[in-house]
Amino acid sequence: MSAPLPILTPRRRSRLLLRIAAGLFGFLLMIGLVTLGIFTLTDTARSKGWAELARTLPEHKAAVRRQGIPLTAAQLKRSPPVPPDQNAAPIYLQIAAQYEQIPVAVRDVDNAALRAFNRPQRAKADRAAARKILLRDAEILRLAEKAVQRPGCDFARFWEQGNDARFPEFAAMRHVAHLLAARARFAIESGNPEAALKDIAAGMQVSNHVEQNPYLLDLLVGYAIEAIVDRPFLETLQQYGHRSDVLAGASSAETVSPRTPSLRHAVAGEAFFACNTFRLLRETPEGLPDEIEKTWLAPIAARHREDALDAWESRTLAFWCDADRELKAASGNLLAEHHGMKRVRERFAAQDLEPGYELTAAFTPTFDPFPAKTMQIAAYRVLRQQAVALLRHRLANGQFPDSLSDLPEKKRIADPFTNQRLRYRKTDTGFLLYSVGVNFTDDNGDDETIDRGNTLDLAFRYSR
Question: What is the sign, positive or negative, of the torsion defined by CA atoms of 163, 168, 173, 178?
Fold first, then answer.
């Protein structure tokens, strides 16, 4: 038989509660002291690291200047400026003003309809919607036709505004590309490939225009525009690639653009943009980068704000200096640019836990896709050029070559992802031509979509 439980008198209950409270207080005090100790050690380590890096800011600014990287808005301006009668930018701003008059909800519906019409499997409703949009935006198209006749494009942006800078032309120029692609598709369907190629060439020129500006976002928008008009170009080849006049039009400089995308030109404005962002933060009382304000580092950074901002700016400039050196060393070889930028990212990522590298995780992923995107758009360009060369070979010889080795050497174009010739396979009804794509792996021409809208291979299947 078990012993009876002791009677918990009021006095005993009070003593027990006091002991529990004392133990809990001691435990919480210990946790608090440990936390305070960790915070103090972290504060000391971070502040010391930031102070050391802050002293390197003048050195990194000098390095940026030596490499010719712009650090002021004046250095980003064109020299000599684009003559007014050759500058397409004012016309695009007119287009942007008209486009912004369309309600946002309507624009969203229009974009979805135009994207759907630009796909191979399009419904009657997509066709009807695209035709309606083309009729409504006839004035925008008229202005676009005027803009693409001008060789230059300089928006003379107010870079000093930093994150408050607006780029209304981006959405408007993409809309122009969708309109041109839609009109080209209607021309293809109506048996007028010449008109289709004219609109495709205009779309390529819109892409050329936006890529003239030294900013990564411009490059990305230019890539998006070129991808939009790439689809009707390939469809024109699919439908009319047996005609010599169509191949002559497709080979023109306006349509199959020979230019190589310049990642180095696009990053030219990034160092200035970063410095300007830090300048604006210094002018804002208690201002810290958004990426820091949301983390446990915020109170420590607030206590040592001046050193922290200088340290982060120094590291940011070091990143862009390093990037510029790698891009310059690559001499326009896109695969070398990719590997060079990978080395830059790895060097900085390896130190992202150290003082001064806290923003690496914020700006490095933003830049990550660009080298691969640059190779991707270049791959689309060489696919178009190689496809035209193959179709010309059939016109001249009555059949497609058994391999690309049968083409003249100057007609064999390298895949930017490998620096070797594109993959090619002759089929019973035509050919399969492809680049290995962003995974750098030959997937036998499989263009199944993988992450971020990318495909395994970048493929063009011709069958006629």
Answer: positive
Neighbours of 162 (CB within 10 A): 17
Helices 369-397 + 334-349 axis angle, to 10? 160
Give the residue from 357, 356, 348 showing the smallest Cα distance to 54: 356
User: What does the alpha-carbon distance between residue 161 and residue 240 come to, in Å, rounded to a whole number?
Assistant: 49
Report pLDDT digits (tens) over 151-204: 999 988 877 776 667 888 999 999 999 999 999 999 999 999 999 999 999 999
What letter would DSSP give residue 403?
A: S
Contact 96, 168 (CB under 8 A): yes
- The DSSP secondary structure of 34-52, one letter per residue, reads HHHHHHHHHHHHHHHHHHH
198/11 Cα distance (integer angstroms): 97
List 116's β-bridge partners, or say none: none
Q: What's the pTM?
A: 0.84
Read out DSSP for 68-108?
T---SHHHHS-SSPPPGGGB-HHHHHHHHHHHTTS-HHHHH
Q: Which residues are paired to 402 by β-bridges?
A: none
Determine the straight-line distance between the first and last CA of the chain, rounded to whole angstroms. 97
Residue 333 CA to residue 419 CA, distance in Å, equals: 9
Find all residues with CB under 8 Å of 373, minimum gap 6, and list them.
Answer: 220, 223
